[in-house]
């Protein structure tokens, strides 16, 4: 860890996307995205639910040429990440838009790294630090589940190609430029996914509140999330 990274790790900071759109119909924000060429990285289920179509339609309204990578919702492997990055390079995109839950958004973040820095070595025993991104593209996340919080976090998880273990990568550069939280996109989820992702969100909120490094702002947000989940999750599961 270099001096700058060490200094930042000692300071209590709150990092969040530059823009968060949280409302029914928030996916329409993509209709005003400043993009010429966009790669949409989506869970296969997003195509089945109609979410992918809504994303593509709004991006086309913005005048963007849209390419799509679609795959299963599972922890990203290095091979999968490379195919995503190759698709981005093929179309020379200026925005990546991830559509799905935490695994898809994590995979898109890692593909973003390879697109920006093709020589980045994810296969190393200890992957190097993620340096500055956004030289080629910016990043938007459209969350379709409530659980991971990857649409607003500075973390991504990769399945290591040699050990098969999950390797977390943390970088402030991973925080998306735009996060879209459209409740309408979650209504087609199976009840078990709604419940499990809601409980995942609750565990994250409790963990954030109880953390010894939590700031007053973090505790305020975490407490609000805890109350909201306890109140609304049982109704959402009906």
TrEMBL record:
Residues 194-236 form the Fe-containing alcohol dehydrogenase-like C-terminal domain. This is Uncharacterized protein. Residues 18-182 form the Alcohol dehydrogenase iron-type/glycerol dehydrogenase GldA domain. One of its GO terms (molecular function) is metal ion binding. Belongs to the iron-containing alcohol dehydrogenase family. The keyword ATP-binding does not apply. InterPro entries: ADH_Fe/GldA, ADH_Fe_C, ADH_Fe_CS, Alcohol_dehydrogenase_Fe. Pfam families: ADH_Fe_C, Fe-ADH. Keywords: NAD, Oxidoreductase.
């Amino acid at each position: 860890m270099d001096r700058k990274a060490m200094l930042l790790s000692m300071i209590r900071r709150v990092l969040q996307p530059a823009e968060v759109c949280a409302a029914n119909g928030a996916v329409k924000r993509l209709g005003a995205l400043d993009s010429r060429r966009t790669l949409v990285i989506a869970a296969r289920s997003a195509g089945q639910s109609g979410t992918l179509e809504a994303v593509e339609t709004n991006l086309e309204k913005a005048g963007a040429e849209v390419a799509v990578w679609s795959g299963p919702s599972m922890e990203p492997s290095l091979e999968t990440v490379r195919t995503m990055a190759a698709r981005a390079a093929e179309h020379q995109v200026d925005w990546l838009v991830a559509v799905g839950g935490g695994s898809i958004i994590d995979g898109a973040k890692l593909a973003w790294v390879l697109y920006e820095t093709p020589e980045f070595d994810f296969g190393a025993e200890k992957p190097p630090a993620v340096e500055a991104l956004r030289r080629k593209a910016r990043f938007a996340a459209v969350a379709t589940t409530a659980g991971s919080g990857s649409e607003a976090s500075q973390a991504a998880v990769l399945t290591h190609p040699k050990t098969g273990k999950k390797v977390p990568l943390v970088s402030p550069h991973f925080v998306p430029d735009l996060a879209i939280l459209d409740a309408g996109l979650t209504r087609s989820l199976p009840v078990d996914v709604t419940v499990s992702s809601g409980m995942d969100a609750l565990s994250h909120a409790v963990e954030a509140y109880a953390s010894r490094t939590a700031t007053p702002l973090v505790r305020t947000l975490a407490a609000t999330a805890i109350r909201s989940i306890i109140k609304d999750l049982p109704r959402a599961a009906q």
